[in-house]
Fold these 2 entries.
Entry 1:
Amino acid sequence: MGEQSLSGTATSTGRDPGARPTGAEGKERADLRPAGFPGCLRCAYRSLDRPDVCVGCAVPEPDIPAGATCPVCEQATGPDGRCPNDWCARGDRWFSLVWTVAPHAGALRRAIAAYKYGQERTWAQVFGRLLVGYLDEHMPWFDDYDLLVGTPAYTGPGSRRGWDHVGAIVDVASRLSGPRWPFDRGAVVKCVETAAMSGLGLARRRSCAEGSLRQALAVPDPRRVAGLRVLVVDDVFTEGSTLREVARALTMAGAVEVAGIALARQPWRGTGHRTRATYRA
Ligand SMILES: [Zn+2]
Ligand SMILES: [Zn+2]
């Protein structure tokens, strides 16, 4: 449905209300890359197939919070010196720590929304480049990881989105980096759909994660992760309930450490209830 050129795993359901025009014209249009971040006018990502060009475009200013930051999630700590996210102090969080490329704000936030909710799937090209650019730029931090996997999505019958938006980014990143970064799509999978987490309050997110998400995750072949240090890729890190479940599944299958890397970090919003519109703005 005009999307088939973007990912080898895309499923054509034919019932996507936001589908682009079909046929050769639609396919050609789908091959055009998005305009990119504001800085991309100068970075020439459309002519260079290099991973490093977009990092500066997505992160125009270094993401250095003014005060102390949490060693687990990089969020600014509160006046008491503690991270407001209590997962970070808990021994049962399953993941060791999480890196994020930039705050979930500005051009990056708009791009992620266009990608996930606006059907602008070619953003995977830019996000894959951003991910590899960040990994390359901070290579010593990630040198010891044996495997990079995407936070899995369910794409079978009855799936919410019908395509794996993190998987598409991982595919681009894998192609760009070659053997330099050991991406392995499919090491951890999601077997059934679960409720959308965005828009839910903290308590509800946690109960959904520990309930239906935990049941939905599987590691099909534990030998692929046993004894390894695994880095889990996601688009947005909110408070870690999803990463925690993926890390738990990988650890139960034998991984010795699981950490996270996300394109964007949602600024901490406490435990108050948020509407969907607030998250998706
Ligand atoms: Zn760029
Ligand atoms: Zn923290």
Entry 2:
Amino acid sequence: MDKICVFCGVKPVKKNKEHVLPQWLLKMTGDPNRKVTFGFNYNSGKQIEFNWQSFTAPSCTDCNERYAKFEGKVKVIVEKLQNREEITGTEALLLLDWLDKVRIGLWINYYYLENNKSQINPRLCIDNRIGKKDRFLQIHFLESKTNSSGLNAFGVETFVFQFNPSCFALRINNVLLFNGSNDFLISKNCGFPYPDKIVSKENGTLELSDWRYDRKKYLEIDNLPLFKGVLTLMQPIQTEMQYESNYYNDSYLVLNCLDRDKRIGNLFRVYNSDIISIDKIEDKLEYESVTGKEITILWQMIAKVYYAQNVFLKRVETNNEIFAKAIKVNEKTIDFYESKNKNFA
Ligand SMILES: [Zn+2]
């Protein structure tokens, strides 16, 4: 396998190593020299463990330095979350960028670690995937009587994730970040134009058709009912959409875009019964209270990640039988967590 720079996607110049999970995050969640665990092997029921020192991906020295300042800013935001301090819309956007970075970084990590088990052609790198597609984030504060420290990434070890790194969850001590991004994933929810039909073509590109634009909002992402978090955000990003010159000056889209030229939508906030565009991006986002039956336990949340990956892969019509197999494997993992859930309850 030819190694590529995790950031720019070409052969690394002055090769360096990027810790996909940054050192500040490892320090924040325990001994940075510890082994880190990433999900369960559903066959053995054991956690998958790595020594974090070996959890690196190749990068150019310059690319690595380019992102150092960004990491510094995100650290402050993650510290706020740890203290349950409110963050602003602008900070939420940075956090979404960072989750794009971590998600794709982990995807590339697993590509190397498991010797490309899915036999894919890596076409993603961090530079070309930050803030390029629709995305969502749900923040959960985990209820724990003890102060539990630790770091886990859920869903990143699956076959489905290798085919389509659409969704994962990151647990940072008592905070869980449930994050996803994919083509037109939440455009429909936010009243933006969306294709009703997505077909995967043999060359790896997607064919989008049956466009709809009704300016309505929808609470559910496809067939994925969400749990309640303290904060649920969506951002439609249609940068790669070439079709819609008809809609370019549409008043709803002009009003609801941070950057209409680049087709970057506003940040939207999801409530129980409504989705609201956030107009004042510098304002703090108040956390919702999650109580009683609304509280989700960790196992349910993890099962939701695998479930969401399946839902998102099924959005795409394909003749590829491997996708169906990958979906089955995830279904087994969901069963595993649900049985664990029963034992837990
Ligand atoms: Zn590079």
